[in-house]
C-alpha cells in the first residue's frame, strides 16, 4: 500500500503533464483542420460556383426504401427561384445512379408527379433517380402570366421564348436540358452519361423534343399522351405564338412530329401510351397519328399503345408507370 | 523360402555394388562386406547412403543423424543424388520383382509336389488293384484244376473196380472149368461140361474195356488276361474327367455379339480339351414352334472361352464337357448368359434443351426390352477437346431423360442400354449447348399446307391451294390455322427464341398449351397467346392476341426478327423487335401447364425459327 501511494504521486504528475500535452495537441489539430479547409477552398474554384448553385431542401420523406425530396434553387436560366422534386433510390446511397427526367403537363408543379404517378417503387427496384422539375418559371411578375391555365405560369411548353415579355424568364428548354442536369450532376450521386426523359401531355411534348433535338443525350424516351404535333393543335399554336412569335418556321424547332421527320442520330426507342377516352385526344390537341405516320415513314421505332377506357389523368399515368420505368431501365441499366 | 529370399537379397546387393562403384571411392569399405546376410541387406536397401558411410559389417545400428552426415559428406554434389536415388529405386524394384518371382516359384514347387504325391498314390492304388485281380485269377484256376483231378481219379478208380470184378469172374470160371476137367465121373462131366462151355464162350464174348476212361491230359484253357492288361495300361492314363462347373456370368464380360464364359474343373481331373455348347434361349417358344434353336459347339483347351457372332441383347444357354484320352465327362449344369444390348439411337430431332437442362430422347436400338439405360455426359471445352465423363445418370427406365445442366456450357451426351450382361456401347453422341433454349418443331402438329425446310427450322405456306380432300388431317394437326407447335423443353424457367419473317409475311407467333384447340386460330382461344401481323394495303397492323382480344397499339418500325421471351416464374410472355432491341408487348399470365411455341402463317409465305441463342439482357427485365 505504502509503496503504491508513493508511486501514485508520481503518476499524478504524469497525468497532469499528459493532459496539458493532449490539450495542446488538440489545439494544433484544430488549427490544422482550419488551414486545410482554407487551402481546399482556395484550390477549388468550383466551390464558389457551387455556392451559386446552392440547393435548399424544402422537404424530405422516406419513400420505397429511399428518399423523396424537394429542393429549391436560384435558376440562372429562368432568373427566379425554382423547385424540383428528386427521388433517390436506396442504391444511390452507395452507387452512382442514372437519372430519369420527368416533365409534367399543363398546370402542374413538381408535386403532381411525385404524389400521383406512383413511380417510386419501380425506381427503387431499378436503382433510378427521378427528377421532376416545375413546369414554368413562377413569380416573375410578367404581365398576363397568370391569366390562362394553358399559357404562362404552369405552361412553359419547354421552349426558350424569344418574345417579350417572356424571353428573359421562359427558357424552360435550356433549363431542363442544360441547367438542371448540371445542377443535379453536381449535387447528387449520378452517372452523367446515363439519363433519360419522359413526360405527360405538354411534358410528353417536352420529352420528345428534348430527345429528338439532342441525339444521344438521352438513352431512352417515353411519353404519356404527349402533344405530338403542337404546330397543328390549339394549345401549341397559342403557346408558340406567345413565346416564339408569329413566324411559324421558328415553331418547328419545338415540334416533335417535324423534328422526327429530320431526325438523324442514334437509334431511338420511343414508348407512347395514350388513353383512348382522353378528351384532349378527341379534341385534336395531341395528334399522335401525325407523329406515328412520320415515324413509320422514317423508321423511327415507336410503340404506341392506345389504352382503352383511360383518360388524360394521373390515374392513367399511374396505371402504366411501371412499363415506362422498365422501358427506361432497359436502356439506363444496359 | 528363406533361402530363396536370401539369395535374391544377395543378387540385389551386388547390383547396388556395381552401380555405386562408379560413384564413390569409399566403395573399398563397402566391398569388404564379408557375409551379406539378411540383416545387412536390409540396411542397404533401406538407406544406401548410410551403408557407404559406416562399416557395413557393424552390427550396431547407425543413428539417423549419422546417416544425414554421411549424406552431406559423400553427396554434397546434389547432381548425383537424384541419379543415385533413381538407381536405388530401380534396384528396390528389381528386388521386389525377384521376390515375387521366388514366391511364384515356390508356389509352383508346392503344386508339383502335391501333384506328384497324388500321382504316386494313384499308381499304388492301381498296382494293388492289378495284383489283387491276378491273385484272384490264380485262386480260381487252382481250384478248377483240383476239381478236374478229383474227377479223373474217381473215374479211374471205378474202372479199376470193374477190372477187378471181371478178373474175379474169369478166375472163378477157370476154377470151375478145371474142376470139371478133373472130374472122373464121365456122366457128370458130360452133364456139366456143356453149360460151362457155354459160360466160357459167353465170357469170351464179353469184351472187357481196358481203355482208360479219362484222358491223362489236363485241359488248360488259355488264360484271358486282357482285363488285367487294360488295368495295367490304365495305370498310365488318367480317369475320365468329371463334369466341369460352369461359372455364372461375370459383370462386364459380355459384348453385343460375344460372351466370355468361364468354368472350372475338379483339381484331380486331367482334361485334354473342353467342348462348350451354347444355344439361344427363345423367350417366345410357343407350342406350334417346335423348332428348337440349333446348339453350337466350340472346342477349347482353356477353362474359358469367348463365344462370338451372337445376337445382341439375347439370352444364351451354355454348358460344357471335358474330354481326355479316357473319355468325356458328363455335361456341366446349364448356365444362362446374356449378351449386352445394341447401343441406343438418340433421336436428335426429339431432343430439346435450355440453359438449365436438356431433354434427351432415344430409341432402344433393341427389339426386345432392356433393363435400363445409362445417360453419360461430358463437358466439352471451348477448344472442342473432349473431357472425361463428368456425370452419369443410371437406371433410366424409359427412353427419355431430363438432365440438369449448367448454363453457358457445351456438353456431349451419350446413352447406353443396360441388361444383366452389362452396358452396351455408347450411342452416337448428341451435342448440347446451354447458351439458349433449343427445340425442334412438332411435325405431327403441322397443318397439311405447311412444309418444312430440311433443317426443320423454316416453314413454308405454299401458293397453290390444296383441295380440302387432299389434306390429311390427323388428330394432332391444326385444321383451321396453318400452324405448327414447337417442342419446348418442359422446364419452368426462362426461354427465348427468335422468328425471322419478311416484310409482307402475315404470321402469328407465340405460345400455346399442348392441347390448344386445333380447330381455331392461334390467339383466338384462351389456350394460346400470340403476336399477329396483318398486312393491309395501307399499313402493317400488329395484334397481340389472347382469347380473341388484342390491345390497340401501333408499331412504327416493322419487326423482321421477333424475339419471344417466355418467363414461367414471372408469368410473362414478351415480344421484341430483336433487330432494334425494342420491346413490343408483354402478356401477363401464370401458365398453369407447360406451353409450346407456336407459329402460323395466315397467308402464303415463309417463317424461320432461330433457336439456341442466348437471351439478351433486356428480354427479362
From TrEMBL, chain A:
EC number assigned by the record: 3.1.2.12
The entry's keywords: Cytoplasm, Hydrolase, Serine esterase
Role description: Serine hydrolase involved in the detoxification of formaldehyde.
GO CC annotation, single: cytosol
Top-level lineage group: Eukaryota
Protein family (similarity comment): Belongs to the esterase D family.
InterPro entries from the UniProt entry: AB_hydrolase_fold, Esterase-like, S-formylglutathione_hydrol
Record keyword Transmembrane helix present: no
Keyword Flavoprotein in annotation: no
Protein name: S-formylglutathione hydrolase
Organism: Cyprinodon variegatus (Sheepshead minnow)
One example of a Gene Ontology biological process annotation: formaldehyde catabolic process
Catalytic activity: S-formylglutathione + H2O = formate + glutathione + H(+)
Active site per database record: 201 (charge relay system), 278 (charge relay system), 312 (charge relay system)
GO molecular function: carboxylic ester hydrolase activity; S-formylglutathione hydrolase activity
Enzyme class: hydrolase
Localization annotation: Cytoplasm
From TrEMBL, chain B:
Keyword terms, alphabetized: Coiled coil
Record keyword Plastid present: no
Domain called Fibronectin type-III: residue spans: 244-343, 344-437
Entry-linked SUPFAM superfamilies: Concanavalin A-like lectins/glucanases (SSF49899), Fibronectin type III (SSF49265)
CDD domains given in the database record: FN3 (cd00063)
Xref: PROSITE patterns: B302_SPRY (PS50188), FN3 (PS50853)
Pfam families: fn3 (PF00041), SPRY (PF00622)
Annotated B30.2/SPRY domain residues: 419-617
Protein name per UniProt: Fibronectin type III and SPRY domain containing 2
Native source organism of the sequence: Cyprinodon variegatus
Amino acid at each position: 500500500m505504502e509503496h503504491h501511494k508513493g508511486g501514485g504521486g508520481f503518476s499524478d504528475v504524469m497525468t497532469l503533464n499528459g493532459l496539458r500535452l493532449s490539450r495542446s495537441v488538440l489545439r494544433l489539430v484544430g488549427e490544422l483542420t482550419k488551414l486545410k479547409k482554407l487551402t481546399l477552398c482556395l484550390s477549388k474554384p468550383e466551390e464558389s460556383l457551387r455556392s451559386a448553385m446552392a440547393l435548399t431542401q424544402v422537404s424530405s420523406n422516406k419513400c420505397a426504401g429511399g428518399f423523396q425530396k424537394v429542393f429549391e434553387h436560384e435558376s440562372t436560366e429562368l432568373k427566379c427561384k425554382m423547385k424540383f422534386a428528386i427521388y433517390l433510390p436506396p442504391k444511390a446511397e452507395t452507387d452512382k445512379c442514372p437519372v430519369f427526367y420527368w416533365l409534367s403537363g399543363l398546370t402542374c408543379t413538381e408535386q403532381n408527379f411525385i404524389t400521383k404517378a406512383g413511380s417510386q417503387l419501380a425506381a427503387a427496384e431499378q436503382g433510378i433517380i427521378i427528377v421532376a422539375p416545375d413546369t414554368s418559371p413562377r413569380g416573375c411578375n410578367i404581365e398576363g402570366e397568370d391569366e390562362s391555365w394553358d399559357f404562362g405560369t404552369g405552361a412553359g411548353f419547354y421552349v426558350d421564348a424569344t418574345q417579350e415579355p417572356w424571353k428573359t424568364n421562359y427558357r424552360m428548354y435550356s433549363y431542363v436540358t442544360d441547367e438542371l442536369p448540371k445542377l443535379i450532376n453536381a449535387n447528387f450521386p449520378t452517372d452523367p452519361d446515363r439519363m433519360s426523359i419522359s413526360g405527360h401531355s405538354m411534358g410528353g411534348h417536352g420529352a420528345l423534343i428534348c430527345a429528338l433535338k439532342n441525339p444521344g443525350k438521352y438513352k431512352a424516351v417515353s411519353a404519356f399522351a404527349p402533344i405530338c404535333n403542337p404546330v397543328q393543335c390549339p394549345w401549341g399554336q397559342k403557346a408558340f405564338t406567345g413565346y416564339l412569335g408569329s413566324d411559324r418556321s421558328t415553331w418547328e424547332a419545338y415540334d416533335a412530329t417535324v423534328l422526327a421527320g429530320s431526325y438523324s442520330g442514334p437509334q431511338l426507342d420511343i414508348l407512347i401510351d395514350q388513353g383512348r377516352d382522353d378528351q384532349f385526344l378527341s379534341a385534336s390537341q395531341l395528334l399522335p397519328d401525325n407523329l406515328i405516320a412520320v415515324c413509320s415513314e422514317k423508321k423511327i421505332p415507336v410503340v404506341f399503345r392506345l389504352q382503352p377506357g383511360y383518360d388524360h389523368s394521373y390515374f392513367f399515368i399511374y396505371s402504366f408507370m411501371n412499363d415506362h420505368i422498365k422501358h427506361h431501365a432497359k436502356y439506363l441499366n444496359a | 523360402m528363406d533361402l530363396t529370399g536370401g539369395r535374391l537379397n544377395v543378387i540385389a546387393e551386388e547390383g547396388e555394388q556395381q552401380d555405386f562403384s562408379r560413384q564413390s571411392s569409399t566403395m573399398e569399405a563397402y566391398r569388404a562386406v564379408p557375409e551379406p546376410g539378411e540383416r545387412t541387406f536390409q540396411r542397404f536397401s533401406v538407406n544406401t547412403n548410410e551403408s557407404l558411410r559406416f562399416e557395413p559389417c557393424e552390427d550396431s545400428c547407425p543413428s539417423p543423424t549419422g546417416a544425414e552426415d554421411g549424406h552431406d559428406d559423400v553427396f554434397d554434389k546434389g547432381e548425383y543424388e537424384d541419379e543415385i536415388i533413381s538407381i536405388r529405386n530401380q534396384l528396390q524394384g528389381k528386388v521386389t520383382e525377384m521376390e515375387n518371382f521366388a514366391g511364384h516359384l515356390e508356389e509352383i514347387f508346392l503344386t508339383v509336389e502335391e501333384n506328384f504325391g497324388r500321382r504316386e498314390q494313384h499308381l499304388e492304388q492301381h498296382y494293388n488293384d492289378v495284383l489283387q485281380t491276378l491273385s484272384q485269377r490264380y485262386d480260381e484256376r487252382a481250384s478248377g484244376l483240383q476239381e478236374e483231378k478229383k474227377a479223373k481219379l474217381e473215374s479211374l478208380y471205378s474202372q479199376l473196380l470193374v477190372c477187378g470184378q471181371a478178373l474175379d469172374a474169369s478166375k472163378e470160371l477157370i476154377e470151375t472149368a478145371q474142376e470139371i476137367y478133373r472130374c472122373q465121373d464121365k456122366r457128370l462131366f458130360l452133364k456139366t461140361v456143356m453149360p460151362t462151355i457155354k459160360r466160357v464162350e459167353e465170357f469170351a464174348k464179353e469184351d472187357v474195356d481196358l481203355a482208360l476212361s479219362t484222358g491223362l491230359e489236363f485241359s488248360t484253357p488259355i488264360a484271358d488276361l486282357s482285363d488285367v492288361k487294360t488295368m495295367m495300361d490304365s495305370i498310365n492314363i488318367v480317369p475320365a474327367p468329371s463334369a466341369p462347373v460352369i461359372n455364372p456370368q461375370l459383370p462386364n464380360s459380355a459384348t453385343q455379339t460375344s460372351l466370355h464364359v468361364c468354368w472350372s474343373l475338379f483339381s484331380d481331373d486331367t482334361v485334354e480339351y473342353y467342348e462348350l455348347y451354347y444355344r439361344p434361349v427363345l423367350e417366345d417358344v410357343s407350342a406350334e414352334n417346335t423348332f428348337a434353336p440349333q446348339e453350337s459347339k466350340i472346342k477349347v483347351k482353356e477353362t474359358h472361352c469367348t463365344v462370338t457372332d451372337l445376337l445382341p441383347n439375347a439370352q444364351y444357354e451354355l454348358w460344357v464337357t471335358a474330354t481326355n484320352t479316357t473319355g468325356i465327362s458328363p455335361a456341366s449344369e446349364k448356365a444362362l448368359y446374356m449378351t449386352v444390348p445394341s447401343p441406343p439411337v438418340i433421336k436428335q430431332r426429339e431432343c430439346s434443351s435450355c440453359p438449365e437442362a436438356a431433354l434427351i430422347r432415344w430409341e432402344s436400338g433393341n427389339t426386345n426390352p432392356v433393363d435400363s439405360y445409362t445417360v453419360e455426359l461430358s463437358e466439352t471445352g471451348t477448344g472442342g477437346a473432349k473431357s472425361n465423363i463428368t456425370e452419369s445418370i443410371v437406371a433410366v427406365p424409359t427412353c427419355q431423360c431430363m438432365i440438369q445442366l449448367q448454363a453457358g456450357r457445351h456438353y456431349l451426351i451419350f446413352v447406353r442400354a443396360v441388361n444383366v450382361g452389362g452396358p452396351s456401347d455408347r450411342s452416337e453422341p448428341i451435342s448440347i449447348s446451354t447458351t439458349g433454349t433449343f427445340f425442334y418443331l412438332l411435325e405431327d402438329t403441322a397443318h397439311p399446307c405447311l412444309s418444312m425446310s430440311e433443317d426443320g427450322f423454316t416453314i413454308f405456306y405454299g401458293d397453290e391451294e390444296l383441295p380440302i380432300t387432299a389434306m390429311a388431317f390427323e388428330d394432332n394437326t391444326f385444321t383451321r390455322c396453318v400452324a405448327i407447335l414447337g417442342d419446348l423443353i418442359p422446364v419452368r424457367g426462362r426461354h427465348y427464341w427468335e422468328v425471322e419473317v419478311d416484310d409482307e409475311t402475315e404470321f402469328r407467333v407465340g405460345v400455346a398449351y399442348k392441347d390448344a384447340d386445333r380447330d381455331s386460330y392461334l390467339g383466338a382461344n384462351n389456350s394460346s397467346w400470340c403476336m399477329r401481323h396483318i398486312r393491309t394495303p395501307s399499313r402493317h397492323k400488329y395484334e397481340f392476341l389472347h382469347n380473341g382480344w388484342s390491345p390497340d397499339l401501333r408499331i412504327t418500325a416493322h419487326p423482321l426478327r421477333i424475339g419471344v421471351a417466355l418467363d414461367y416464374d414471372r408469368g410473362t410472355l414478351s415480344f421484341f423487335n430483336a433487330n432494334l432491341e425494342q420491346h413490343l408487348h408483354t402478356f401477363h399470365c401464370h401458365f398453369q401447364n407447360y406451353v409450346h411455341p407456336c407459329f402460323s402463317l395466315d397467308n402464303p409465305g415463309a417463317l424461320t425459327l432461330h433457336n439456341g441463342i442466348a437471351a439478351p439482357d433486356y428480354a427479362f427485365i
